[in-house]
Write a structure and sequence with these properties.
Number of domains: 1
CATH architecture: 3-Layer(aba) Sandwich
Number of strands: 7
Largest sheet: 7 strands, mixed
Helix content: 25-40%
Length: 160
């Protein structure tokens, strides 16, 4: 019986030479994708930008914004052919680790109501809905609200 070798998921910092693959993945995943220029601007601005690779193939990416003890998940995506394998959970976990290591006490994100799988993933790691942004996202028939979610990274300590 031959051993099955599974590729190991690795998360590393995004590089300029990753932008073509990341932009193609974004375009394949979303009806209203970020442009190549937006990804480039995120790198230039110094946002924590990460890719998830299996062997040497980029299978996902995530981008954070950090400041004032908070982090914001700006974008997270797993390529269509790699979904359903737990890679989104793995990448989100690494993004939360990076936020924690950079001193974030709270992490925010927005998700479309039309993306219940993503919302369920976020809830499963502890994000809670804290509000809505009306007409936030472009949509085929106009605009779609955003569900705003937050995750507290530090426990409230009650002195006794």
């Amino acid at each position: 019986m031959a051993a099955v070798v599974r590729p190991v998921a690795q998360v590393r910092a995004m590089r300029l030479d990753d932008l073509d693959a990341v932009s193609e993945m974004e375009a394949a995943s979303y009806e209203f994708p970020w442009s190549h220029g937006i990804f480039n601007d995120c790198l230039k601005a110094g946002h924590p930008c990460w890719v998830l690779s299996l062997d040497s193939t980029i299978a996902g990416y995530g981008i954070l914004s950090m400041g004032a003890g908070e982090a914001h998940v700006l974008n997270i995506c797993i390529a269509p052919g790699y979904r359903g394998r737990g890679l989104g959970r793995h990448l989100l976990g690494r993004l939360l680790d990076i936020a924690r290591w950079n001193g974030a006490e709270r992490v925010f994100l927005e998700v479309r109501p039309s993306n219940p799988l993503a919302k369920t993933l976020y809830e499963s790691v502890g994000f809670n809905e804290i509000g809505r942004r009306p007409r936030y996202y472009p949509a085929r028939n106009g605009r779609e609200d955003a569900i705003v979610m937050a995750l507290n990274m530090v426990e409230d300590h009650i002195e006794q």
